[in-house]
Amino acid sequence: xxxxxxxxxxxxxxxxxxxxxxxxxxxxxxxxxxxxxxxxxxxxxxxxxxxxxxxxxxxxxxxxxxxxxxxxxxxxxxxxxxxxxxxxxxxxxxxxxxxxxxxxxxxxxxxxxxxxxxxxxxxxxxxxxxxxxxxxxxxxxxxxxxxxxxxxxxxxxxxxxxxxxxxxxxxxxxxxxxxxxxxxxxxxxxxxxxxxxxxxxxxxxxxxxxxxxxxxxxxxxxxxxxxxxxxxxxxxxxxxxxxxxxxxxxxxxxxxxxxxxxxxxxxxxxxxxxxxxxxxxxxxxxxxx
Length: 289
What we know:
The chain has helices at residues 20-31, 43-57, 73-86, 113-128, 130-135, 158-161, 169-190, 217-226, 233-236, 238-245, 272-286, and strands at 11-15, 35-40, 63-67, 92-95, 139-144, 196-202, 256-258, 261-262. By secondary structure, the protein is an alpha/beta fold.
């Protein structure tokens, strides 16, 4: 009789799972026996991802697809509603979806695009799925941040964040990645007496489709210059997979990791006052406490 796989009987939901480190993360969790729910924007890409994971993980792998554009909060709510109707518990949530902003873009709901995608969506989805995570007894929330958070700060005023005169693709991205860490730390604090852990990570400089078509020429040039030292998605996904599945971090929460190890983050990212302030801003902007 074959031994049970490490994640047999567990369910993992991974956003941004149709390519790059999200796809690799989903594939490897499926290989460990988890039922995986892939979330992506493009139906065709999602089906290709499902087929690739099924091929890699074997015919018994259980792979489900959800297609939602998570830059819109109404879609985050719709995704959470579907998942709550279909699942009785969720063991692993990997907030992986993210974009590198291009020119200033405001969503239909009035949020700067990278702020909406990279921060508000993980904040909203995680909070909406907390009952399922709690039902698992022991569950993990993993959020992909970036070393770019070192130059980030939290702008409390949405009008300033959306202002063409104030906008910069670099600060918009860095701010959202700082928000990922502050969100993780505050979430871990709020869940301290539960069985749910929350950690975040920098995946390294990964050669993925992070940039948008309207990304600035300067950023594209810098990206292409850096490509020779970038790592493949397989290597970039290692820390996400580690935090989602390793017994070594089963009881670790509120930490920032790089290369599967706790890492130093910016002074601002460690501020409990900043974390509490961000939570209040996020609750107001999403309508979710």
